[in-house]
Amino acid sequence: MDDRWWSDGVDELLEVPDDVMVDIREVEPGDEDDGLESTRRGAEGRGWGRHCQGPKVTISVTGGVRYSVRREIAPIVKALCEETVRRGYQFRDRECWGYACRKIAGTSSWSNHSWGLAIDINSPANPMIYRRRWAELQREHPGGVPRSIWTDMPEWLPELWKRYGFRWGGEYRTVRDAMHFEFMLRPSDVPGLIEQLRSDGIDAPDALGPVPKGAEVDRVTHRVTATRLHLRSEPKQDGASLAKLTNGTAVERVDDELAEADGYRWIRVRAGVGPRIETGWMAIEYLAAEPGTAAPSPGTAATPGPDPSEPPAGEGPRLGRVTHHVTGTNLNVRADPGLGGAQVSSLPQGTPVEQLADAVRQADGYSWIKVNAVLDGALVEGWAASEFLGAADA
User: Fold this and answer.
1) Which of 94, 307, 373, 382 could lock onto 333 through a cystine, CB 3.0 to 4.6 A?
2) How far is residue 235's CA from residue 253's CA, in Å, rounded to a whole number?
3) How far apart are CA 252 and CA 297, in angstroms?
4) Distance of CA 22 to the CA centre of its chain
């Protein structure tokens, strides 16, 4: 097998887009109790550590599709993908997803995607069908819901993946998520599965081995709370990006200086970036202080910064007040309340918004509110699902 079938790290272009996460995977009340993924018994308890952390690699599959997955299971995913293609089922580009640091849409549970332990295959042809719709289909087809309605996968495909440690979403109890496969075993089980693949005549690459130990800061004062956060050369948003640090990364604050720019408060930090230590600036709004670390010296403590929605005079529109912030990676703002409403814009995580009225519209399993937001100097107005907004004073 080609030695260059994988590369270190996550390819950002491969993360699940919110249109897939929300429009295909909206959660109805109670669905998470009916086998929707299995994180609560989960990945952390099986020895995979915390969500959104741990080493990831990006693998390439014959036909051009790529997946970002947990480093340890990459040889198994690669072998099963290639065997799937060899047997005649093709992966379709931009319809296949792997690692994404996110919760299961509409719930407080972290998805197995956030550990890099789950992949989705050809999502449009294998859609999530929730309990209410599945019950309707069962009534419409009393002799059994035709397989072609909820999956285009041949019967051998899920059986192949299940044999090597994966659970299939097409067998959840009262919903169908045929695109979804999640690895259910422990890190210690991986070597034996690689050998089993080879014994069964499936070409499997060698285990990738441990990640070389990278540079570490001398003293951890903060950790990154965002999915990814830029370390910048200057304390401003257009400062050159020195690195992107992932959720949970430890950093060390190097002095008490605090700079305010672009609606954020910036502190100077040191962080391990591969084998080296880099020093730069990060927005403190996306850093959590490590318990037990000393606060800045008196007189230099951070003071509340300007509202990110308030640009300098003459530089664009302003919100009347900030009522919420976006909590999802990206959140679609729509012209009408509902998943069928035309997309007006997509707001990144942390964007401040203003709720325009108290009215709440229920549609497609979500509670929609009318909002304003400022994005790229322009005012955006439309409807957003409140499940992906956090109160500003939270």
Assistant:
1) 382
2) 14
3) 15
4) 12
Beta carbons of 220 and 251 less than 8 angstroms apart: yes
Judge if pTM exceeds 0.85: no
Beta bridge partners of 327: none
If one counts every other C-beta atom within 10 angstroms of the C-beta of residue 336, the result is 14
Contact 1, 205 (CB under 8 A): yes
Query: In this structure, how many other beta carbons lie within 10 angstroms of the beta carbon of residue 296?
Result: 15
Q: Rounded to whole angstroms, how far apart are CA atoms 197 and 330?
A: 38
Contact 220, 252 (CB under 8 A): yes
- Write the burial class of residue 358 (CB in 10 Å: 0-12 exposed, 13-18 middle, 19+ buried): exposed
Q: What is the DSSP letter of 19?
A: H
Rounding to the nearest 10 degrees, give the CA dihedral for residues 133, 179, 191, 13.
Answer: -130
Residue from 43, 33, 35, 32 nearest 184 by CA: 43
Category of 148 on φ-ψ map: left (φ > 0), alpha (ψ -120 to 50) or beta: alpha
Which of 220, 209, 210 is closest to 245 using CA atoms? 220
